[in-house]
Design goal:
By secondary structure, this protein is mostly beta strands. The chain has one domain. The protein has no helices and 41 strands.
Length: 495
């Protein structure tokens, strides 16, 4: 466990534990037989950007990380992931909100199939545990706790305490074999928040989250992932928006500055909501509930649930065995297919696409793209860009302050990103900053990031091209997406 001046980050795994923290940030990542971690001066990755931290863990582990005034965490297959940003927390949280937890002045927590994880930001602590372990960490004015497989988790923040247990238990949120719980500054959730509460549980999982004025949470079949950046979140999220996407057996979540979004897939439940809204959705054999400050939306279905709401908008969609959701500041877009879900949103643009057994997502502040496939989930976010992707047994993450990136895989982890861009891709049994087990391809360019992975499947190529970019990053962006089933050419122009 590690704890820093205003933050703490801790992670522990089956046979290992790794931890790192910094004056204003800490990041940690751990994988099956390896751990990797990376973060930068005012940022942390595995998805985090300027003034944030991110974390990622892979096949049987969980990782957690927090940053200057924020913390983020993410885990993959058999894990849960979470991330938060400046004065917010995510796994779904945004600017003045909390998600899966909690944000500004709150704590967040998330657990996955056999594990639970927790994380909190600004003046908080984060915690995450992995397969057969529990870990706990807390920061300056708070403490949080979480346990995994066959354990209970608990987290509480500045003026509160919360408790939850899993595996055949009940929780501030409870799931079949897991429980998750989170709440924020003056509220409690398992779903409740200052002015809103949201809660969702699924057949084998449960997720919950609330925030000061908002909370969001998401869990998936055996995994959950989340990432977001300074004023954006990605796994897909952008400048003032967040986008999230999960694939066949995973769920991912992301929220942004004034919004948060969440999505889960096959056999999971997902939830998402934004600044003044909350949305929640659950899938196969679950029920979901969500409410928000000025609105609440909830929907569940026999094998799926879809729901969506937004300040001015939020959208959510679920598919045959999955559900997806996405919303953005002034826009949200989402799409899912029979066995897949996709989602994408962006500040001025969001594009997302998934195919037969995959899901893909893409968003950007001015750009970020994410894609995941059948047995994998991927995430991407950046301050101005971030890309992340994980595969069947792994998860990868990458972010930047303008940069930091991290990725881990089942037995391998790979990561790559660049100063103003990050790109990463992992595949079924491997991760390659571009990798293909059976193939994934990734490619990004200046001021953009793109990511793609495929289990056994479709390959996607996303590329951004900025035309006449201005100092503030505005301009026209050309997104070229090519996949087995999709040929997409989109142009976005920011004001």
């Amino acid at each position: 466990m590690v704890y820093s001046n205003h933050y703490s980050v801790m992670v522990y795994s089956n046979h290992y534990s790794v931890m790192v923290s910094s004056n204003h940030y800490s990041i940690m990542v751990y994988s099956n037989h390896y751990s990797v971690m990376v973060y930068s001066n005012h940022y942390s990755v595995m998805v985090s950007s300027n003034h944030y931290s991110m974390m990622i863990s892979s096949n049987h582990y969980s990782v957690m990380v927090s940053s200057n005034h924020y913390s983020m965490m993410i885990s993959s297959n058999h894990y849960s992931m979470m991330v938060s940003s400046n004065h917010y927390s995510v796994m779904i949280s945004s600017n003045h909100y909390s998600m899966m937890v909690s944000s500004n002045h709150y704590s967040m927590m998330v657990s996955s199939n056999h594990y639970s994880m927790m994380v909190s930001s600004n003046h908080y602590s984060m915690m995450v545990s992995s397969n057969h372990y529990s870990v706990m960490v807390y920061s300056n004015h708070y403490s949080m706790m979480v346990s995994s497989n066959h354990y209970s988790l608990m987290v509480y923040s500045n003026h509160y305490s919360m408790k939850v247990s899993s595996n055949h238990y009940s929780m501030m949120v409870y799931t079949n074999h897991y429980s998750m719980m989170v709440y924020s500054n003056h509220y409690s959730v398992m779903v409740s928040s200052n002015h809103y509460s949201v809660m969702v549980s699924s057949n084998h999982y449960g997720v919950m989250e609330s925030s000061n004025h908002y909370s969001m949470m998401v869990s998936s079949n055996h995994y959950s992932m989340m990432v977001y950046s300074n004023h954006y979140s990605v796994m897909v999220s952008s400048n003032h928006y967040s986008v999230m996407v999960s694939s066949n057996h995973y769920s991912v979540m992301v929220s942004s500055n004034h919004y948060s979004m969440m999505i889960s897939s096959n056999h999971y439940s997902v939830m998402v909501y934004s600044n003044h809204y909350s949305v929640m959705v659950s899938s196969n054999h679950y029920s979901i509930m969500v409410s928000s400050n000025h609105y609440s939306v909830m929907v569940s279905s026999n094998h799926y649930g879809v729901m969506e709401s937004s300040n001015h908008y939020s959208m959510m969609v679920s598919s045959n065995h999955y559900s997806m959701m996405i919303s953005s500041n002034h826009y949200s877009v989402m799409v899912s297919s029979n066995h897949y879900s996709m989602m994408v949103s962006s500040n001025h643009y969001g594009v997302m696409v998934s195919s037969n057994h995959y899901s893909m997502m893409e968003s950007s502040n001015h750009y970020s793209v994410m894609v995941s496939s059948n047995h994998y989930s991927m995430m991407v976010s950046s301050n101005h860009y971030g890309v992340m992707v994980s595969s069947n047994h792994y998860s990868v993450m990458e972010s930047s302050n303008h940069y930091s990136a991290m990725v881990s895989s089942n037995h391998y982890s790979m990561m790559v990103y660049s100063n103003h861009y990050g790109v990463m891709v992992s595949s079924n049994h491997y991760g390659v900053m571009v990798s293909s087990n059976h193939y994934s391809v990734m490619e990004s360019s200046n001021h953009y990031s793109v990511m793609v992975s495929s289990n056994h499947y479709s390959v996607m190529i996303l590329s951004f091209e900025m035309k006449n970019p201005k100092e503030d990053g505005s301009g026209c962006i050309f997104l070229n997406t090519v996949s087995r089933s999709i040929l997409l050419l989109i142009q976005y122009c920011s004001v």
